[in-house]
Amino acid sequence: MAFAEPGVPAQPAAPPPPDPAVLAEQAINQLVIPMPQPHFGPDRSTIAVQLWTWLWIDAPAPVTSTVELQGVSVTATATLQSTTWTLGEPAARNDGDGFQSGPAATVTCSGPGAPYDASVDWRTEPLCGHMFRWRSTDERTGGSEKWPVTVTTTWGVTWQATTGQTGTATLTGTAADAVAVSEYRLLLTPGR
After folding, report:
1. In the chain, is it the N or the C terminus that has fewer CB atoms within a 10 Å radius of its CB?
2. For residue 54, what are the β-bridge partners?
3. Does residue 98 carry a pLDDT above 90?
4. ∠ CA 36-145-83 to the nearest 5 degrees?
5. Which stretches does the entry tag as region Disordered (predicted)?
């Protein structure tokens, strides 16, 4: 126990250092995850059943945030890991001609996907894509004639403190869109 000299006030004890995990939570909460901007290819205005539709978002750069308190600094960095597309049309495949409603089809792709590339054979499955099976008719879509689409990005977050502590977390970002899906038909005419 330390004694102060008479007439000299005792110095208050130094506050404990901040908890790096608490600072990490603050740094993570300050990260601004960009809203995904969905793209459909080759041309969103000509999406049709039984043909590959390319799915991608603009490739975002990693996002960083730093918090500092009492000489302890924590930096959190978020990096895009995957993109999940919920595509509106039912996931269940019916071998007959009858439409069956049900849970929406989903596709999860590593990273942002890749923009449509006209040099790739149109029959080739894209890096991130979906082949619609059902037209987005008025009856099937509640009158909108478009399948609702939700795009969810999953971001891996790593944080590091100047004390040497590290950790991880996960963040998500979501955007909504809708696409019309039509059908191409061949018309054969005899004698031509």
Report:
1. N
2. 41, 129
3. no
4. 20
5. 1-20
